[in-house]
Write a structure and sequence with these properties.
There is one protein chain. The chain has 304 residues and is α/β, with parallel strands linked by helices. It has helices at residues 42-48, 72-81, 96-107, 163-168, 176-180, 220-223, 241-246, 252-262, 280-287, and strands spanning 4-10, 24-29, 32-38, 56-60, 88-93, 115-120, 127-130, 134-140, 148-154, 160-161, 185-186, 192-193, 199-200, 207-211, 229-233, 266-270, 293-295, 301-303.
Length: 304
């Protein structure tokens, strides 16, 4: 099976600490690399993670709070210094475009690659990126400013050919694609061989939902129903529920409730408040609601 994994570069919240970097992840899908959010220190974390800068083909910014985007211009500058020539797509709320253009005019005006900016409507769930094997959807979230998450979905794959049956019936190579598309095979003697005997079903498509930052949204579960892996911000524990409500963040227990209601495969917790020296309390509260919950940490890699 082709890799589909999440590399955690930063899982802290607004205040940087010696323990956690600001929000950033690399989502790797079938050999393609996508950066999700880009807080301060992202490019240093990329080096520590041994992710090649040249492999990143697109950047997705959830919203314009600094802990999710202050690292972007520095990273773009480094791309240029490294001699990047491939175009880079950036998907972000529309208000970032003017700011980014001004920064690039100052710091990135003589580089050999182009940046394609794509404004994201944070109020709508829609496909904002698509290639042959993947779609990425925006997920409307509720924060103190326009904000959205991102839903990465593999496209369904064609079934696998049973080589033993192809050889047994001496089916020519020219017909294999038709069989993958669902065709039966008729032998020279007129025997019909059903398609189900010639193929094996492909693996079920995998999906990853990134949801940070947002207050608790019960309706969010319907938008991400059945995803393989959910990353949901868990800034606070039960002891700071009032702060979560005030600043439009979520508790670990609320994140777990979304995971349970959506029937996801696993839950990743992150965006920890600097108030917590030990996030185990957040994990315990989440696991009381959704057992398959995990703490993220810098340099950890999770298979979707």
């Amino acid at each position: 099976m082709e890799p589909f994994r999440v590399n955690i570069l930063g899982c802290g919240s607004a205040l940087p600490t010696p323990r956690h970097y600001a929000s950033a992840q690399v989502v790797e899908v079938r050999g393609k690399m996508f950066l999700v959010d880009c807080g301060e220190g992202t490019q240093m974390q990329l080096r520590r993670s041994h992710v090649r800068f040249t492999k990143i083909s697109a950047v997705f910014i959830s919203h314009l709070h600094g802990d999710h985007c202050f690292g972007l211009i520095g990273m773009l500058s480094t791309f240029g210094l490294l001699g990047r020539t491939a175009r880079l797509a950036i998907y972000a709320p529309v208000k970032m475009q003017d700011m980014l253009q001004r920064q690039m005019a100052l710091f990135c005006h003589d580089f050999d690659y182009e940046v394609d900016f794509h404004a994201v409507d944070t109020t709508r769930q829609q496909i904002i990126y698509e290639d042959r094997s993947l779609t990425v959807e925006s997920i409307p979230l509720e924060h103190r400013m326009p904000c959205c998450g991102f839903l990465f979905r593999e496209k369904p794959q064609l079934p696998h050919i049973r080589r033993d049956m192809i050889d047994f019936y001496q089916i020519p190579v020219s017909q294999i694609n038709n069989i993958k598309q669902g065709a039966d095979w008729v032998t020279a003697d007129g025997e019909r061989v059903e398609n189900s005997r010639l193929v094996v079903a492909a693996e079920a498509p995998r999906s990853y939902a990134y949801c940070s930052d947002t207050r608790y949204m019960p309706a969010l579960a319907e938008r991400i129903k059945g995803v393989s892996t959910l990353y949901h911000e868990s800034t606070y524990g039960d002891d700071n529920l009032l702060l979560a409500e005030k600043y439009f963040h979520s508790t670990a227990r609320q994140a777990a409730q979304v995971a349970a209601d959506a029937g996801v495969g696993q839950l990743l917790l992150g965006h920890y408040s600097s108030r917590y020296e030990d996030e185990q309390v957040l994990l315990r509260e989440a696991q009381e609601v959704f057992e398959n919950a995990h703490l993220t940490d810098e340099q950890l890699v999770f298979d979707v």
